[in-house]
Design brief:
Blueprint (H helix, E strand, L loop, with lengths): L1 E10 L6 E6 L2 E7 L5 E6 L4 E3 L2 E6 L18 H11 L5 H17 L2 E9 L6 H13 L4 E7 L10 H11 L3 E2 L9 H18 L2 E6 L9 H11 L6 E5 L2 H4 L2 H13 L2 E5 L1 H7 L15 H6 L4 E3 L16 H11 L5 H9 L3 H7 L14 E4 L4 H7 L3 E6 L2 E5 L5 E2 L8 E2 L5
Parallel strand pairs: 1-4, 1-5, 6-7, 7-8, 8-9, 9-10, 10-11, 11-12, 12-13
Antiparallel strand pairs: 1-2, 2-3, 5-14, 14-15, 15-16, 17-18
The chain binds fe (ii) ion (FE2).
């Protein structure tokens, strides 16, 4: 007798009429017409069952602070950074924890059960670090929160940042972050990458840097990140976030760069919602999109995830923790409208970031954790098209969120009584 069986699921790989057997929080069977009984049986009615959404790039210390202490009037990256500096001295640990927990509630309701969040370590009090370590502990039963020590004001540019970063890692922050393009010079940026990769190698940690988040085609810190990843044997443990300068780089240089990134085992994390709004701000027209070269990196064998980056904070007023909205924007900005490319956009908010974060037991196969999302859609492309309703969200085999199916009642003579926007 199993704990739960989900019957008649469609999977992202196209398999239909699949039953999922769950016991002790793990998946024990994935097959058609599973011959077993369970304490609870759930009829998936042919809807798409996916592993949970994963956000590879977020800022939980800033989320839901929109309007504190004022709104970003220009909507630019630089005013956002200035605004964050105004907000930092006003932060309290209680308010930070409360806002982060409230965001995690939104995330869970959207089937987003793993988040890598950068946390600013430039405040010598490390108040945000303490707050998010507390949040990581409190949400652990329902959400995997991975923290990155992020020297927002520059590792070398901001006094004390290196010591603060090491203290944050000592306190239990998981990943080494950086922001080389924000250091005083290109040379100092490269030096910060070397220092940070060596810290990660010494401590056996992963690396995830904000890297080249600008429209400057000569911002090439990703090259240095690949070099030190290779040199220190960090393959598979390093990610470059944003990489927006690559949008503006010379094509010949990119043709040399991409194989080096691939060879170094460095992953890329684009943030479509934020890149399309914050980049290209110094252009007149034509105005650059600013997102990194996603299809080209995928073709070169580089794993690419899409992150949310911001929700209702000094940099971005919108968002709700919906990774399908992120995938939807990524698909459009990168013009990934080929059939396989649309499916890659779904992978960019599910299995690819799960690999980048190193999540254990992720997926839909016997032995995986029973962390699952039932979507009101027939396949991944329809899920993106509709930003599909999360009918059920499961963690370790227990339902932790439910939503009513989306539908509208029509009052049109001779037409159907309801529509749900499904294509079948
Ligand atoms: Fe970021």
């Amino acid at each position: 007798m199993l704990d739960t069986i989900l019957r008649n699921c469609t999977l992202a790989d196209g398999r239909t009429s699949i039953d999922i057997g769950i016991e002790n929080g793990r998946i024990v069977a994935v097959e058609p017409a599973l011959a077993a009984n369970a304490a609870e049986t759930i009829d998936a009615a042919g809807q798409l069952l996916a592993p949970p959404f994963v956000d590879a790039h977020f800022h939980m210390d800033a989320t839901r602070s929109y309007g504190l202490p004022r709104v970003n009037r220009s909507g630019t990256l630089l005013e956002g950074i200035a605004l964050w500096s105004e907000l930092k001295p006003l932060l309290t640990q209680e308010a930070l924890v409360e806002r982060a927990l409230a965001y995690c509630d939104w995330a869970v309701a959207k089937g987003l059960l793993a988040i890598r969040s950068h946390v600013d370590v430039c405040d010598p009090r490390l108040l945000a670090v303490e707050a998010l370590l507390e949040v990581r502990k409190r949400v652990a039963p329902y959400l995997d929160l991975q923290l990155v020590a992020f020297p927002q004001d520059g590792l070398l540019r901001s006094a004390g940042a290196l010591d603060n970063l090491k203290r944050a890692l000592d306190m239990g922050v998981d990943v080494v972050g950086g922001i080389p393009h924000f250091e005083r010079t290109m040379a100092e940026g490269a030096e910060s990458v070397r220092i940070l990769c060596e810290i990660a190698a010494q401590r056996g940690l992963m690396v995830d840097m904000h890297c080249d988040e600008s429209d400057d085609p000569l911002s090439r810190h990703i090259e240095t990140l690949a070099l030190h990843s290779q040199r220190l044997g960090l393959q598979g443990r390093v990610a470059g976030s944003h990489l927006t300068s690559m949008h503006s780089m010379d094509n010949y240089y990119v043709s040399k760069l991409l194989p080096l990134i691939e060879e170094a085992g460095v992953a890329a994390i684009a943030n479509p919602l934020i890149n399309i709004t914050l980049q290209g701000r110094h252009d007149t027209y034509p105005r650059r999109r600013g997102m990194t070269r996603v299809p080209e990196m995928l073709a070169a064998g580089i794993p690419v995830a899409f992150g949310h980056d911001c929700v209702m904070d000094p940099w971005y007023s919108l968002g709700s923790g919906d990774m399908l909205e992120v995938a939807h924007m990524g698909l459009h900005v990168a013009q990934m409208t080929a059939h396989d490319a649309m499916r890659q956009c779904f992978a960019a908010v599910t299995e690819t970031p799960a690999r980048i974060l190193g999540l254990e037991g992720y997926g839909i196969a016997p032995g995986c954790k029973a962390d699952l999302v039932l979507l009101q859609a027939g396949d991944p492309v329809e899920a993106i098209r509709l930003r599909a309703t999360r009918l059920l969200v499961m963690r370790r085999g227990k339902v932790i969120a439910r939503s009513a199916p989306a539908a509208a009642a029509l009052e049109l003579p001779g037409r159907p009584a309801t529509v749900d926007w499904r294509g079948d």
